[in-house]
Each structure stands twice: as structure tokens, then as C-alpha cells.
Amino acid sequence: MTNYTICNCRNVSFFDVEDALHDYESLTDVENAFSHVQEVTHCTTGCGSCYQKILDAISDIMHR
Ligand code: FES
């Protein structure tokens, strides 16, 4: 699996999202998982355009 940047404003990569989800217990709800990832990485707090890409990455990680 290759890493790639998802959020340019906050320099958050796919692996950063994965790491943020590692210590997160309830991986059932994308919205809750998103709040957690945002808290840890600060993704989507710049221009906000990466929001959907972050959600997609989270659901990829949750469903594999
Ligand atoms: S690219 Fe993530 S907030 Fe701008």
C-alpha cells in the first residue's frame, strides 16, 4: 500500500488517518471516526476541500 497526501493544508496522509484510527475503538460509525481523525490530525480545518477524501479513506480503512 502506498501512502499519499489527502489533506494538503494540514499535510495529512493516508497513513496519518490510519494511525489516528488505530487507537479508536468504535470503528462502526464513519461520522464519529471522522471527528476523531479530525481531532488528532486537524485535517479539513484549512480549506475544507479534502472532507470527502478523508471520509472515503476512513471507510476504506473501516471496510477492509
Ligand atoms: S486540503 Fe484539507 S483542509 Fe485544505
Describe this structure in words.
The protein has a single domain, classed as Arc Repressor Mutant, subunit A, CATH 1.10.10. The protein is 52% helix and 8% strand. The chain has three helices and two strands; from the N terminus they run ββααα. A two-stranded antiparallel sheet has the order 1-2. A hairpin with a 4-residue loop joins strand 1 (5-7) and strand 2. Helix 1 (14-22) crosses helix 3. FE2/S2 (inorganic) cluster (FES) binds at residues 7-10, 43-44, 46-50.
Characterize the main sheet.
2 strands, antiparallel
Secondary structure tally, helices: 3
Kindly state the percentage of residues in helix: 40-55%
**Which strand order does the major sheet show?**
1-2
Q: Which series of helices and strands comes N to C? A: EEHHH
Instruction: Give the tally of structural domains.
Output: 1
Secondary structure class reads mainly alpha
Portion in beta strands: 5-15%
> According to CATH, what is the topology?
Arc Repressor Mutant, subunit A
The CATH architecture term is Orthogonal Bundle
Rounded mean pLDDT is: 92
Rg (C-alpha, Å): 10 Å
**CATH hierarchy class name:** Mainly Alpha
Name the bound molecules: FE2/S2 (inorganic) cluster
Assign an overall shape.
Answer: globular
Q: What is the total tally of β strands?
A: 2
Q: Stretches where pLDDT falls below 50 for ≥5 residues?
A: none
Termini separation comes to 13 Å
Task: Summarize this entry quickly.
This protein is mainly α and 64 residues long. The chain contains three helices and two strands.
